[in-house]
Q: What sequence folds into this?
């Protein structure tokens, strides 16, 4: 019985010999018009594999697999094919290549079917399903084909029974004024599969309508915030006081100030750092439509942020992220727009006043 | 609700009332945006973005700015309030 080291030592030579015979046999097949001269020729799933060489896609050292079961300690040279010949097909003639599929000198060879391997990209942490759900995670209303970010949680200050709400933008939780109160909110949403009711963790509770100009307006109506809240009936599903990739924050509002260093964690760009360049900015135009069909709203008293090293502080999908003061970890703003150069956010104090809530 | 200063004196956190009054009321057809910022030395200042092609400084704003310096910013592309639509716009600029 061959040892692992014997197989490993012979592997390089085996690979070269295998390739050599494959090339010779392929040329012979082309001359004779017989394209399936070995038992390793392509079958239906790999019909595009026109030669033995193209059906063989890897070699290695392993243990034999017989009738689907691993045979321990029977070390072999492995040949991996996209598809094996079925028993119903005629056995091919004996050729140097087909002999190589049985043994290489005294070393046994085992052919194993290994279909095309697909690379599965793991979504970044902010886009994965997460229970309990911290802030900074991807979220969306059910059956909507977009995603945004759940910023953090807030609670009504005066209520005896502390109802917890998820905070994000109107254009995330309410799809720009269009979704009815009570719409289920899911996490993570559509990016990694269809949402089900098992993904629901909140329901849309309130939003501040975004006002757009009408034909009768002499001046565009001014907005100050793009925000919505969703009630969380089961707080075991959520993680209060924590933002993905950042950790714990201090649930007490801070005032945004020019030159303040800030940090956020969002669905698309995860954790990014930046600096507030302006506050109380008036006349900021934000496009909620497309480039070909713009739908523009004007905002006053908003905050402008630039990312470090000229990197964008945000990208689409980060909408709804809560922006924290980097030194005290206190919420200062709610991100809602960007252009790849700078990011625009509303004052977290104004957001909390609008809903009568405080950070939870 | 509690507004807690993140550090420093109150006059470093709360902008002067006359500056706040200026930026919330001043309008000019060549002015795209106006807001509050600080100079590199930490003094409160007016943040102004003019329409493309308009010469700086804007004389009318200069006359209205009082004791505050004006920091001009270049105009940028319009801000977009877009969520992400996976498989379609993830690679687009926001």
A:
């Amino acid at each position: 019985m061959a040892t692992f080291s014997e197989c490993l030592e012979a592997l390089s030579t085996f690979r070269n010999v295998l390739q050599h015979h494959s090339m010779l046999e392929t040329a012979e097949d082309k001359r004779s018009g017989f394209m399936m001269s070995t038992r390793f020729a392509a079958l239906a799933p790999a019909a595009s594999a026109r030669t033995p060489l193209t059906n063989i896609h890897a070699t290695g050292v392993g243990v034999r697999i017989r009738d689907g079961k691993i045979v321990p300690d029977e070390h072999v040279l492995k040949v991996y094919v996209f598809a094996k010949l079925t028993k119903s097909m005629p056995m091919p003639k004996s050729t140097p290549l087909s002999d190589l599929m049985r043994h290489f000198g005294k070393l046994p060879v085992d052919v194993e079917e290994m279909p095309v391997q697909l690379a599965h990209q793991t979504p970044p942490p902010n886009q994965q399903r997460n229970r309990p759900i911290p802030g900074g995670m991807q979220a969306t209303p059910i059956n909507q084909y977009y995603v945004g970010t759940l910023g953090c949680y807030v609670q009504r200050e005066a209520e005896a029974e502390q109802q917890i709400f998820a905070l994000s933008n109107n254009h995330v939780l309410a799809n720009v004024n269009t979704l009815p109160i009570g719409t289920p909110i899911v996490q993570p949403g559509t990016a990694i599969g269809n949402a089900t009711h098992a993904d629901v963790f909140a329901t849309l509770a309130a939003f501040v309508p975004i006002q757009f100009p009408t034909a009768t307006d002499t001046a565009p109506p001014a907005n100050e915030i793009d925000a919505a809240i969703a009630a969380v009936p089961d707080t075991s599903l959520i993680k209060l006081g924590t933002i993905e990739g950042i950790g714990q924050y201090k649930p007490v509002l801070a005032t945004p100030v020019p030159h303040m260093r800030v940090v956020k964690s969002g669905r698309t760009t995860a954790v990014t750092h930046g600096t507030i360049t302006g506050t109380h900015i008036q006349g900021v135009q934000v496009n909620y439509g497309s480039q070909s069909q713009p739908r523009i709203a004007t905002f006053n008293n908003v905050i402008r942020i630039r990312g470090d090293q000229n990197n964008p502080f945000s990208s689409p999908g980060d909408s709804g992220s809560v922006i924290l003061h980097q030194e005290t970890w206190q919420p200062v703003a709610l991100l809602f727009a960007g252009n790849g150069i700078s990011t625009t956010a509303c004052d977290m104090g104004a957001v909390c006043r609008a809903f009568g809530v405080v950070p939870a | 609700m509690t507004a807690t200063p993140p550090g420093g004196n109150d006059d470093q956190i709360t902008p002067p009332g006359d500056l706040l009054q200026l930026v919330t009321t001043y309008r000019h057809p060549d002015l795209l945006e106006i807001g509050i910022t600080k100079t590199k030395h930490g003094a409160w200042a007016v943040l102004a973005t003019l329409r493309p092609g308009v010469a700086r400084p804007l004389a009318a704003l200069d006359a209205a700015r009082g004791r505050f310096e004006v920091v001009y910013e270049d105009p940028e592309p319009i801000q977009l309030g877009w969520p992400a639509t996976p498989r379609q716009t993830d690679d687009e600029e926001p």
